[in-house]
Every structure is written in C-alpha cells, then in structure tokens.
Amino acid sequence: SKELLSFAHLGDQVHRRTMKQVFEFNIMVVGESGLGKSTLLNTLFLTELYKDRDVPDIQENTPKTAQIEVRQVNMTEKGVKLRINIIDTPGFADPVNGDECLRSIVEYVDHQMDQYFHAETGFHRKRIQDTRVHCCLYFISPYGHGLKPLDIDMMKRLHNKVNIIPVIAKADTLTSTELKKLKQTVLQDIEAHDIQIYGFPDYDSDAEEETIEEDLDLRSTVPFAVIGCNDVVEIDGQSIRSRTYPWGIVEVDNPKHCDFTKLKKTISLHMQDLRTTTSEILYENYREEIMSSEEY
Ligand code: GDP
Ligand code: MG
C-alpha cells in the first residue's frame, strides 16, 4: 500500500500498548476563499490515491466549498491504524459573509470539544471517538501584505482551541524575495497581535544532532509556503505532482520549489504532539471553562 503522508515516524510515537487502537487525527483548513485550501487537502491526502490511474482533472474535483465538509481517510502504517478526518471549510470572501463563516468554523471546533466532554463524563468512556480538531492549517493570502484584519480576528478566535499552523497560500505566485518578505511580515503580525501558533515540542535531551537540525530547519520555515497540485506529469518514468504553466512546471514535492514536503514532515513528525497538546492543554482549558461556568 502507498504511504499517503509517509508517517514513517508514527510507530515511534505510538506506544505498543495502544497499537490495536485506531489512531485518530483531525486536521482542518481555514482561510480566505480561493486560496487553494481544498486543492491542498487533495494534494496532501487524496491525489496519491490516483497515482496509478489517470488523474481525472484534479481541478474538477475541487468545487467551491459551500459548507464544512468532513472526509475520512483510513490507512495502516507500520501496523498502526490511522484514521484521518479531513475538515474542509468554506472560505470567507468579505467581512459580511466572513463573520458568518468564522462563527460556523469556531462552532464546529467547539462542538467537537463539547461532544468529547459529554462522552467523557458519560458511561461508555472506553470507546470515545475523538473528533477534536488537532491541527488547523491557516491559509494566508500571497497577495496581501501580511495578515488581514479578518485573519487576525479568526486566528484569535481559534488559537485557544486548536493548534494553528500558518501557511502562505499559492506560493508559486511569489518571487523568492517577495516570499521572504511576506513570511517576515506574517511572523511580525503574529507576534504583534499576540497570536499563539503551534509551538514545536522540545526535543529530548538525548536527541540526535540530525534530528535537532532537521527540527530547527522545519521551525524556521514557518509559515510554510505551499502550492497545490493540479497536474501529474511523467518525467523520466516518475510521476511528478505539479502545477503546469505555459512556461514550465512547478513541482509540489520539490523542496526547492516550495515548503510542501516540510509541512508534510512537520505534521507526520509531530502528529502525536499535536494530539497531546490538544487534549492536555487546549481541551483542558476548555473543560475548566465549562466546569467553572455557572450553568454547569
Ligand atoms: P479554496 O477556496 O481555498 O478551497 O480554493 P480552491 O482549492 O478551490 O482553489 C481555488 C483556485 O485556486 C482553483 O482554481 C485552484 O486551481 C487554484 N489554486 C489552488 N492551489 C493553488 C496554488 O498553489 N497556486 C495557484 N497559482 N493556484 C492554486
Ligand atoms: Mg474550498
């Protein structure tokens, strides 16, 4: 079977005792409309399913997202059963429809916490399905100059509830200089507005130098510049996922072209940490809030 995300590190993260369980991971995309959210989800999780077949027309597979859509991908990696819920959300286009969109997204995230809370306090605690959102890829426009007011609003409404990993959308539309500048501005905006984004875990004191180096490299790449694929081309007998232009192709999986592989690596490497921070920090905060509220 094909490795979808190549979760080569998953086995190390999952304790043997829990091997029989299904390992659930829930990932969501959020951001302005038209930034390539649906396309990237397909690139991350679905296009590989077509690898040995003709890719129909990937663009035709991403109609405009009108409401929150959850799709499930099941796979087994090195004996670990993995169930990934992929949560696609409608993008916001302007402040008016934006507010409604934001609200429905926040509601969705809250609702999953709620469900977990009720399941946990109920009788069948052994088999709680975990639909809490472990990771939110937040899409930032390549056309703006940093975060927009709507982005700031949305990120602030989400950052106490979910791990946010910011990404620069449609990185193929930026020159290297523009990309560098935009990354800087976005990081400055995040800091200036006190937005909490996913902080990578501290590595073990006995971590190998190579691991530390790679981790530092991943950290310093945030926000990840991503490109969604719309084509698969054959080069020297290899299928290359790409975007095709009149003047050439940009390779999605080529780290010289964009940060897609680094984003993938970050997710697969830190999948367990994303789950742990969700349940031990974000969910705990939420639980405390409920428990201390008067209605409870
Ligand atoms: P969403 O509204 O954020 O879900 O965006 P879609 O995935 O529906 O994509 C909107 C349009 O942008 C489509 O025409 C895509 O082909 C195009 N698109 C998606 N990803 C990229 C990208 O990385 N670069 C460029 N230039 N266009 C993209
Ligand atoms: Mg969409």
Could you characterize the architecture of this molecule?
The chain has helices spanning 10-13, 37-46, 95-121, 149-158, 176-192, 209-219, 260-269, 271-292; strands at residues 22-31, 69-77, 80-88, 135-140, 164-168, 224-225, 231-235, 238-245, 248-251. The longest helix has 27 residues, at 95-121. The strands form two sheets. The protein has a six-stranded mixed beta sheet with strand order 2-3-1-4-5-6, sandwiched between helices. The model is unreliable at 48-60 (pLDDT under 50). The protein is of the alpha/beta class and 296 residues long. The structure holds guanosine-5'-diphosphate and magnesium ion. Magnesium ion binds next to helix 2.
Write a compact overview of the structure shown.
The chain has 296 residues and is of the alpha/beta class.
Calculate the terminal CA-CA distance, rounded to whole Å: 48 Å
Shape: globular
Return residue spans where pLDDT drops below 50 for at least 5 consecutive residues. 48-60
Strand order of the largest sheet: 2-3-1-4-5-6
Would you count the extended β strands for me? 9
Helical segment count: 8
What are the distinct ligands in this entry?
Answer: guanosine-5'-diphosphate, magnesium ion
Order of helices and strands: HEHEEHEHEHHEEEEHH
Helix proportion = 25-40%
| Rg for CA atoms | 19 Å
Biggest β-sheet, characterized? 6 strands, mixed
Mean pLDDT: 86
